Amino acid sequence: MELFTYAFKAMGSPCEFQLYCRSQTEFNECYLAAENEVIRLEKKYSRYLNDSVTAMINSVAKDGGSIVVDDETSGIIDFADQCYQLSEGLFDLSSGYFRNLWNFKSRTVPSSAKIMEALGFVGWSKITWNRPTLSFNQGGMELDFGGCVKEYAVDAAASLFKTMGITSGIIDLGGDIAAIGPHPDGAPWLIGIRHPRQKDEPVAMIPLASGALTSSGDYERYFIKDGHRYCHIINPETGMPANQCQSVSVMADQAIVAGAASTIAFLMGSNKGQAWLKEMGLSYLMIDSKGNIDT
Amino acid sequence: MKKNLHPSKLALLTASALALPAISQHLSAAGPTTTSKIKVHAGSYQEDDIQEEKTLSANRGRYDVDIGQFYLLTPMGERGEFTLNLAYEKMSGASPWFTLPGLDGEAVQIMSGATIADQRTDTALSYKHFWESFALQVNTGLSDEDDYRAKNLGISLHKELNKGLTEFALAFAYSRDKLRPSDSEQFLDRVQTADKYLQEFGVTLTQVINASTIVQTSLNYERQWGFLSDPYKVVFVENNILPDSRPDTRHAVSWTTDMRHFVDAANAAVKVKYRWFSDSWGVNSHTLDLQWHQNLPRDWAIIPSIRVYSQSQANFFDNTFSESSTNTSHSNDYRLSAYGARSLGLEVRKKFGSYALGLGYKKYRSAAEYSYSKSPTEAPGLVDFSLLTLKFEMEFF
Question: ipTM of the predicted structure?
Answer without folding.
Answer: 0.84
